[in-house]
């Protein structure tokens, strides 16, 4: 599994969320795995960092048992 | 004895959040920060070199730090104690010395271990990668066998699980698991190893031991014991130590060579310092950090290491009891009292839980905790991406634990 650079991962995540809409952490991971790739950091930490930078939005969903991410 | 409130007053971070990631790094108390500030402001010089007064004072404080750290945290002599930057460096120093015989005074000395064909290194699948990768590399370099101990289902390492025979020349394992919190019966395990093969050397990873509980390396019977200063001892990052039994430190080849560790150098060779522990201080060391570590050792000693252990176990028990009432929560490790508890909630990724707790200002750690073999053994690497770790120290409170339990309930 290839670890993407920060820039590659950010681009991939922004694109996939634009294309597919709201996704759970595990679903983002699965999309990356399809490409044989993973985040430079643990996915949630990386997604959380993108959220802090206002690149993506994220919210806890107890019903969905995890965090939801979207653009 | 310092009260919980006194310690919390010395650690401002405890007023801002529920800090429960003590297995990774602990916040540094103000009195420890003050001695490091004092170094920078009053006597910021090198050690063991200058003749002027503040350089002598720096050397005195440096030696005092070595005495305090070795005696208080490990109950060993300063001559048997090497300053390191963390456990990782301590383990790598040992691995280096196991591969390279001591070169001193132009002569290669007898190696610490005379490796032969078919010899083995034994470790466990519970180890942090920092007590695993260097042994694997050593085995590959020297073409040695390498075997693993698997723990019991509740993540305990028992003496009988260690497969030791005459070919086992070295064993490395942990004192306390950073990934499930188990406090192993290290003394009994080492006793059994030595009964089966008295020549087998034992390295103990003490990353989660000193500062959390009293540690006596002599009673434990290990040959090497390494730890990091920025965890239990409440010291700064970039500090740590390594105990090496006296008859071994005399034969141990330093991983780094350079200034400050010699008694003479010529164009043809060098003679290392006669004080063995000082052969491992090549180059200018982390003087402020290690003086801080010495103060941190005094600080945890003022609290009382037994008091810290008792309190961490009490807090852990409250959490364990709380988690046991939750249907969809899996807890890892035994039901023994301990200060580090790990869990998952069915259907959740571990990091999602940790981030959810962060929303409540509860700081925990999630993931594989640098223990991927153990996560795979437990079947939680893929399923949950590891587990969520809540790790306590003396300054955590019962009220905080109750808030953690309430916050987890809200996720169910």
Key features?
heterodimer; A: 71 residues; alpha+beta; Arc Repressor Mutant, subunit A; three-stranded antiparallel sheet; two-stranded parallel sheet; 23% strand; B: 412 residues; alpha/beta; Aspartate Aminotransferase, domain 1; Aspartate Aminotransferase, domain 2; 14 helices; 17% strand; globular
Notes on the protein architecture:
The complex is a heterodimer of chains A (71) and B (412). Helix content of chain A is 49%, strand content 23%. Chain A has 71 residues and is of the alpha+beta class. Chain A has a single domain, classed as Arc Repressor Mutant, subunit A. A 3-stranded antiparallel β-sheet of chain A has the order 2-5-4. In chain A, strand 4 and strand 5 form a beta hairpin. The N and C termini of chain A lie far apart (26 Å). In chain A, 30% of the residues are buried. With 412 residues, chain B is α/β, with parallel strands linked by helices. Chain B folds into 2 domains: 4-20 and 304-411, Aspartate Aminotransferase, domain 1 (Alpha-Beta Complex); 33-301, Aspartate Aminotransferase, domain 2 (3-Layer(aba) Sandwich), CATH 3.40.640. Chain B has 14 helices and 17 strands. Chain B has a 7-stranded mixed β-sheet with strand order 2-10-9-8-7-5-6, sandwiched between helices. A 4-stranded antiparallel β-sheet of chain B has the order 13-14-17-16, covered by helices on one side. In chain B, a hairpin with a 7-residue loop joins strand 13 (329-332) and strand 14. The longest helix of chain B has 22 residues, at 53-74. Chains A and B meet through helix 3 of A and helix 11 of B.
Shape of chain B: globular
Largest sheet, strands/sense/barrel of chain B: 7 strands, mixed
Q: How many helical elements of chain A?
A: 3
Largest interface summary: A-B, 12 and 15 residues
| Terminal residue distance of chain A | 26 Å
Give the % helix of chain B: 25-40%
**Proportion of β residues of chain A?**
15-25%
What profile does the largest beta sheet of chain A have? 3 strands, antiparallel
By CATH reckoning, the class of the largest domain in chain B would read Alpha Beta
Looking at CATH, the homologous superfamily of the largest domain in chain B is Type I PLP-dependent aspartate aminotransferase-like (Major domain)
CATH level 1 class label of chain A? Mainly Alpha
